[in-house]
Design a protein that fits this description.
- The protein is α/β, with parallel strands linked by helices and about 400 residues long.
- It is built from nine helices and 14 strands.
- Strand 12, helix 8 and strand 13 form a beta-alpha-beta unit.
- The chain is globular.
């Protein structure tokens, strides 16, 4: 039997993963909570989208954007030597005032009942922050608004690929209570936040019955699918347009190595160049699929079917979707929004999604080629919120 690595100083009988009766526990998504600041944007985005650059530049929004981006950059600025190879690596700290702008993903603790072979709701609740949906759903200090673009002291001019607004899971503050938390301390414990590391809902063990040992628990994998990958380090002369290195640095190099790293690119790549760019420890892990995936039913290259073949619900799965083709991207997202996660839907497999949603609004309709029939920025807001409401940490990719 294989168990998750527990935090230093904990035991297998208590804490987020085990009960006193040695029941294994995992954490499941409960609900999404928009921050008040995000809610204010939803209340006004239908009209604000027609003059989005001017709206973002208003003093109250410029100030909020500075707070959100400064906080996110602060969280992302850890030295490369800081890693999280186990759960709860970092010590707790008090709630940061800037985090009141962030939205929240909520989680419940469930424990495995060997008699019924099901997980049942147990004591324990968790919260993890995520950047709010606001403005253009991009770094507001990037250059897209031209002369009206916001400026922030100390931040270099962005070139269209800024990810300064994105808060990936390992860099997002979280808090939780569990079975070892006395009722008198539950409220105070919810004010103790870890700024970085693996929360208990990162991944889980998969129980299975074994006639020799009873219930065996299989360990999870860390998997990344990059749909629209280009080369690993650089595309043309633009390093910002090649995403592989970013995902490697944010996840793999932080102590949670990928078991599989699947790069999909429809544009013809040179195999030698592609594999020369990957780090040594991705050799054998990295798979390049230099073909286009589809959403055609029965096609062996169907995107959602491939995800279901490769990923298990207990795995940690990061999915990037950016192929600059709304006719292909839209059916994938539509499938995720409409499926039933409790009945084998692929949405239940995705922990983190980076998605550039190509819709029609100024100033993005220029670089995106005026896409037709895909909706506007208001629709994009709803798409990202609905994805988050299904338990997916969905971020707007640049």
């Amino acid at each position: 039997m294989r168990h998750l690595i527990l935090p230093e100083g904990s035991t297998s009988s208590i804490g987020p993963f085990w009960t006193k009766n040695n029941q294994y526990c995992k954490w499941v998504f409960s609900h999404y909570e928009s921050s008040p600041y995000e809610a204010s944007w939803f209340a006004n985005i239908e009209t604000a989208q027609s003059h989005i650059c001017e709206t973002v530049a208003k003093p109250e929004h410029k100030n909020a954007s500075e707070i959100i981006v400064t906080r996110t950059l602060e969280l992302m600025s850890l030295p490369s030597s800081s890693k999280w190879e186990t759960y709860d690596t970092f010590n707790t700290t008090s709630f940061h005032s800037s985090d009141s702008f962030m939205s929240r993903m909520h989680y419940n603790r469930t424990c495995y009942d060997t008699k019924s072979e099901t997980f049942k709701l147990a004591k324990g609740k968790g919260i993890q922050l995520i950047e709010p949906l606001w403005g253009m759903l991009r770094d507001p200090f990037d250059h897209w608004c031209g002369d009206k673009a916001l400026k922030m002291e100390g931040q270099a001019n962005a070139t269209g690929q800024s990810k300064a607004h994105i808060m990936p899971q390992g860099f997002a503050p979280y808090t939780y209570t569990d079975s070892s938390t006395p009722p008198t301390l539950e409220e105070s414990r919810q004010q103790e936040w870890r700024t970085h590391g693996l929360p208990p809902w990162h991944s889980s063990l998969r129980p299975s019955s074994d006639s020799r040992v009873g219930v065996a628990f299989q360990p999870p994998q860390n998997i990344h699918l990059d749909l629209g990958s280009s080369y690993f380090k650089v595309w043309g002369n633009d390093r910002g347009a090649a995403s592989g290195q970013w995902f490697y640095d944010i996840y793999h190099a932080r102590g949670q190595p990928f078991s599989r790293f699947i790069a999909v690119e429809v544009e013809t790549l040179n195999d030698t160049t592609a594999f020369r760019q990957i780090p040594d420890d991705l050799v054998g892990v990295y798979t390049l699929m230099n073909v286009g995936l589809t959403m055609e039913e029965g096609d062996k290259l169907n995107t959602v079917d491939m995800i279901k073949r490769v990923v298990k619900p207990e795995d940690f799965f990061v999915f990037k979707l950016d192929i600059d083709s709304a006719p292909i991207e839209e059916p994938i997202v539509k499938s995720l929004l409409e499926d039933n996660p409790d009945e084998g839907g692929a949405s239940a497999l995705i922990d983190e999604l980076m998605f550039e949603h190509h819709v029609n609004y100024s100033p993005m309709n220029g670089p995106w080629g005026n896409p037709k029939g895909v909706g506007d920025l208001h629709r994009s807001y709803n798409v990202f919120r609905d994805l988050r409401r299904k338990g997916i940490r969905a971020h707007s990719w640049p």
